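Researcher: Structure for this, please.
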Amino acid sequence: MNLRHIEIFHAVYVNGSVSGAARALNVSQPSVSKMLRHAESLLGFQLFQRTNGRLVPTDDAHTLFTEVSEIQDKVYALREASRNLRRGSGHVLRVSALPSIALDALPTAVAQFLRTHESVKFDLQTVHHDDLLRKLYERETDIAIAYEVPHAAPVGHRWLGEGELVVLYREEDMPDAPPRIELQRLRDHKFISVVASGPIGQLFTQELERAEIVLDEIVSARTFYIATALVRQGVGLTVVDSFTAEASMAPGLSIRPLKPQVTFDVHAMFLLNRPPTALATDFLKTLAGVIDAP
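Model: Predicted structure, token format:
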């Protein structure tokens, strides 16, 4: 089977009919029927049986569809990558970043950069950590800003700086907070957990396990946004990255770093065959300066 056969089979399987496949592919019904018969001839077995006006996949077709779906997904990704390449970037810097970086550090760096690079345009996206590599592979972005570079991933990276874990709390809930807060002290307060939120959540979990500390977790928040909003509402305190905490500050809230300090790195990732341009490199220097600023 060639790619056209796979595309026809996939469309008929998903739509349940030749007419539905033809509409989905914007081709004629006879063309679909002809290619489907040709595919069955090449394979040496029947793919569909006609029942009550619909094409019902055979057991062989069900087995084949599992493999075909993976190929079709890659074809779609290839087409999207091709479209992005055709658009070209020119003087457009395409940057994807974790939401915590995009809250404040990234906009600040963009604003600073545009003061001396007025002709540059930006295409900015916020992306969850698990999707950053896909954005790079499919050419939807040129640079991905992350806290952790996946092991064995075929990407290059540049270190931009570091952040640290901090306690975000209402001042009235901890009026006598020291300059740095030990994990042990968090036991005395209602805690909003973000342990499921990517590398930062995992880093905090490791610290708790190392110290053999169990907190009074009254809410498990899937995002840092929810966790910080709950702190503002007086539900409890939380531990998040310093970038999220700084961007979430409001009257009555305070931040304290942990004792001992728990830090993490910030990296710019890119494809090895598409390293940052001179312009992108200049921007990364600006972003690194923002991250390093006190």
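Researcher: Any notable elements?
Model: The two ends are 60 Å apart (CA to CA). The chain is about 45% helix and 25% strand.
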